[in-house]
């Protein structure tokens, strides 16, 4: 045999290894572009490409708008574009609740969970349904203001319009990348290179991270391109199925295989080794410290190596703080069952985004908490649509030491269920953003949970009398440090007076889009005089805020760090200068749509106060 043939074999193997490594890269830009071209030109048989806009918005984690209107809401993503290709701030777009890092720098900021894999950076999401299930060939996202927030695109095997849901719901990552800073706020059509998947889909999920943005990102529409029949590559293409390689690598990288993850949780067969190497010589505590830097899937993999490391990886001390949110698509009842024996000492648990579409049952959740809830201090359940009254009852019974409870966007919980929360008298933080909590239940909670320090009632539209709620807060919640009343529709100067008199430790107050508050009543002046510790104050879209209010803040709230007065017509540049000179710690000042503050004034203030981010939004 000629020596050339072994060399060719070696080169072929090397080329194959290079392809595998290249397929692992996060962006896969060049490789996907090449594959996309090949699949379009060589696919047999030829399919007609279907182009469709989102038919319906099924679910989302937050939005800037109101629950009772269309302005700045996620529902604007359904249908054809309203704004694109125009750029600017438009109410007809979809806008998430936060941007930048400002929310991480205020008194209500929560400590992050350790062991979050570096590949997971999503902060918000929206799920979109399309008319026809297709094999995706492209996804176009029309961004009209401050683009660059989308970090992940996923496709689901479940058809939301099917009468027969599948036994197992699969999610596949079409594209994923770390947050990037885009130069300029101008509109763009974002079309990342997506990977091919082996099932048709009409359910697409966008996940975003707005931490690098200077202002709210605005999305106008999403376009899904696809074919009805799965493309079959011709024999002219490589014998290596690059899609299969990518699927394998993605499962390894993101822990996306449900069976794989559950097998890792439940592994009991261990290799037999005569010794444990140098690990036998290390102190138990040192090995525990080393393993504390591993993610949950890595712990499960390591547990398969030897009995010593299995013992360490299953030690409940490794699961004191556990976040399963990065693995939301793969967590189910079986996962929780496998984790029970390891989580008997758990104190922080994050199940946000998990369990939807039947993945976690009420009984599965209840069984887990009955075993693992006794030491729980912090429980994150944001967007947990499997939660019902039974779940809240179990939480209050099984978690006697609970101090923090996040039910943000759990909009499927019935109103009467919130009465159970009043049984947890140790609560210090309660997040009820976008829930159906009613006035009676909330009054009971405030009456019995007097240790509350942080309370979020943003977009809680079923509360009839916020003045009564504010009065109860002033009487019972003397330790309150942060309060979110975003889009509260009926609080008046009376409620603000009761709140300011009783909760004088307040450091953060969000009164954005509260239309019933008027500066002429003296409510904002009263706030400034009664709450000298204020660090964050949002008076967003209150047209009546005037110079006297700003001057009172400058005189009394010298620790102010963040102020939002978007939309006022009554504030002059002179009062803003007084504020900036007095409040040395001020870092964020939003004067968007303030008619007296033009771009020239903003440039002047930026030059004189370079440490302050002064935001001036615009519309074209």
Produce the secondary structure layout.
Layout: H1 4-24, H2 29-42, E1 50-53, E2 56-60, E3 94-95, E4 124-145, E5 150-156, E6 171-176, E7 188-190, E8 201-208, E9 218-227, H3 242-254, H4 258-266, H5 284-291, H6 296-302, H7 307-313, E10 321-323, H8 333-339, E11 348-350, H9 362-372, E12 378-380, H10 389-398, E13 404-406, E14 429-431, H11 439-448, E15 454-456, H12 466-476, E16 482-484, H13 493-502, E17 508-510, H14 523-530, E18 536-538, H15 547-556, E19 562-564, H16 573-582, E20 588-590, H17 599-608, E21 613-615
Parallel strand pairs: 10-11, 11-12, 12-13, 13-14, 14-15, 15-16, 16-17, 17-18, 18-19, 19-20, 20-21
Antiparallel strand pairs: 1-9, 2-4, 3-9, 4-7, 4-8, 4-9, 5-6, 5-8
Please summarize what this structure is.
By secondary structure, this protein is of the alpha/beta class. The chain contains 17 helices and 21 strands.
Number of helices: 17
The rounded distance between the terminal residues' Cα atoms is: 73 Å
- Catalogue the unreliable spans: 1-44, 234-258
Helix proportion: 25-40%
Radius of gyration: 27 Å
Essential attributes:
Jelly Rolls; 17 helices; 21 strands; 3 domains; twelve-stranded parallel beta sheet; nine-stranded antiparallel beta sheet; 620 residues; disordered N terminus; alpha/beta; Leucine-rich repeat, LRR (right-handed beta-alpha superhelix)
Q: Can you walk through the features of this model?
A:
This protein has 620 residues and is of the alpha/beta class. It folds into 3 domains: 49-227, Jelly Rolls, CATH 2.60.120.260; 319-463, Ribonuclease Inhibitor (Leucine-rich repeat, LRR (right-handed beta-alpha superhelix)); 480-619, Ribonuclease Inhibitor (Leucine-rich repeat, LRR (right-handed beta-alpha superhelix)), CATH 3.80.10. 28% of the residues lie in helices and 17% in strands. The strands form 2 sheets. The protein has a 12-stranded parallel sheet, with helices on one face. Strands 1, 2, 3, 4, 5, 6, 7, 8 and 9 form a 9-stranded antiparallel sheet that branches. Helix 13 runs parallel beside helix 14 and helix 15 (547-556) runs parallel beside helix 16. The longest helix is centred in the first third of the chain and has 21 residues, at 4-24. The chain is globular.
